[in-house]
Specification:
This protein is α+β, with helices and mostly antiparallel strands. It has 4 helices and 4 strands; from the N terminus they run E-E-H-E-E-H-H-H. A hairpin with a 2-residue loop joins strand 1 (2-7) and strand 2. Mean pLDDT is 83; it is low at 1-16.
Length: 101
């Protein structure tokens, strides 16, 4: 079952659950071992935001394969940038989620 909150004509906070299963936020947070995929800072579960690796504005989809757990600061800083564009802003180093393998 899908839960939606609509704001400004766009879908926000979409959380897909299967019969009481975990939300996308929960799954992304677990996959990132409770850390921001970009900077690696430890995140309490309630502080997780989802970031689209390929931005929706650039053809990305709202699917777990394109979503990572992010702290609010990294999510805002990345904005609608691609990973490569954001990497240039961050000094060209691999992101924490990439270093983990």
């Amino acid at each position: 079952m899908a839960h939606y909150r609509k704001r400004s004509g766009r879908l926000k906070g979409m959380q897909l659950r299967s019969a009481g299963g975990p939300s996308l936020h929960e799954v992304a947070w677990q996959q990132a071992h409770g850390c921001c995929w970009f900077c690696g800072v430890k995140l309490p579960r309630q502080a997780v935001t989802l970031d689209h690796l390929i931005p929706i504005a650039q053809g990305g989809i709202h699917h777990l394969e394109n979503l990572v757990a992010s702290c609010h600061a990294c999510n805002i800083a990345k904005g609608r940038r691609t990973l490569e564009e954001y990497r240039q802003v961050c000094g060209g180093r691999p992101f924490a989620g990439e270093r983990e393998g």
